[in-house]
Amino acid sequence: MEAMDIVGRAKEDASLPKATMTKIIKEMLPPDVRVARDAQDLLIECCVEFINLISSESNEVCSREDRRTIAPEHVLKALEVLGFGEYIEDVYSAYEQHKVETMDTVRGGKWTTGAEMTEEEALAEQQRMFAEARARMNGTAVTPKEQEPEPSMDS
Fold first, then answer.
1. How far apart are CA 32 and CA 90, in angstroms?
2. What pLDDT, on a 0 to 100 scale, did the predictor assign at position 5?
3. What are the Cα distances from residue 32, in Å, to 29, 36, 91?
4. CB neighbours of 5 closer than 8 A, spacing ≥ 6?
């Protein structure tokens, strides 16, 4: 029988993107250090296990507070409970940086910052973005569509 995680999927199904993890591993090491594929796989498995551990304890903390949504405070408390208290300051700092970097993203179907767009403006922007993507895919340059001149009153 397979080991199951909290949501009932086999633990082997849970993983992290290898390319991303390999990039992170390489960024953390001096340029002249190589890492064997088996060692990379082991590091990825360790990261997945660590995430499972923190998630599970965060869920416990959340449940003890009769909450249904794990909040950042629950994760920080889980780190403390599991003996990773020395990382709390760094984790909180990374969380604050993440909030700053993602302020201009969509949350709950609405933009968190920026002006509202009309449906026509959004459609025009979407078409422009599609054209740019098509051009990049085809290897051609895109010239921004010039606005049509307004008719003059002289005629």
1. 27
2. 46
3. 8, 13, 29
4. 11, 14, 52
DSSP-derived 3-state class of residue 10: strand
Residue 116 to residue 18: CA distance in whole angstroms: 38
Q: pLDDT tens digits, residue range 127-140?
A: 888 888 888 888 76
Contact 26/35 with Cβ under 8 angstroms? yes
Whether residue 78 contacts residue 58, with contact meaning beta carbons closer than 8 Å, is answered with yes
Answer whether 74's CB lies under 8 Å from 61's CB: yes
Could you report the per-residue pLDDT of 9-37, keeping only the tens digit for each? 455 567 899 999 999 999 999 999 999 99
Element (H, E) at 78: helix 72-81
Would you say 69 and 62 are in contact if contact means Cβ atoms under 8 Å apart? yes
Q: What are 33's two structure tokens?
A: 């250090």
Round to whole Å and give the CA distance between 86 and 90: 8
Q: Categorize the per-residue pLDDT at 143 as very low, low, confident or very high, splitting at 50, 70 and 90.
A: low
Please list, in sequence order, all residues whose beta carbon lies within 8 angstroms of the beta carbon of residue 20, skipping any fewer than 6 positions away.
Answer: none
